[in-house]
Amino acid sequence: MAGDLPEYYFRIRDNGAAVFRVDTENRQRRIEMDQIAVVNVKNGEIKAQGDRKLTPGDLREIEAWMAKRIALLAARDIDDILRAVDHLNLTTHWVQSKATDAQLEEVTDPLLLAMHDLRSVLVRKKAERMMKAGPEDEA
User: Which residues contact 69 (CB under 8 A, 6 or more apart)?
Assistant: First the structure.
């Protein structure tokens, strides 16, 4: 088991992780985790824990983890949005085929406002992208 463990463990938390060095090479052959740093994926900050000095190897591992984590979070964001599209389609089907008048009364205004807000932002962002691209790119 000890050979299978990674050298570092990242305890996920809001905006990043606490970084631990995993140690199994001790007399009791227990797994020990020594916190060495805290990282923030939002701003890229790496703070050594206490008065520790992070080695170049520590920094390489932490930076590699941060890059993978940022990519994973970005992929999850897109997946969440695509799930929202699925939910909108399911909601449309529910409204058309199953919803009662009382249920529609409860959800219509919040849904219309949210969809209007989303549409306004999407249209504005699309217009901004088109303006950046310029007329020569529209062909």
Answer: 10, 16, 17, 41
Q: Any idea which residue has 């909108």 for tokens?
A: 88
∠ Cα 68 73 32 (to 5°): 55
How confident is the model over 91-129, as pLDDT tens digits? 999 999 999 999 999 999 999 999 999 999 999 999 999
What is the reported pTM? Answer: 0.76
Reference 39, options 76, 69, 75; nearest CA is: 69
One-character DSSP codes across 23-45: E--STT---EEEEEEEEETTTTE
Residue 21 φ/ψ, nearest 5 degrees: -95, 130
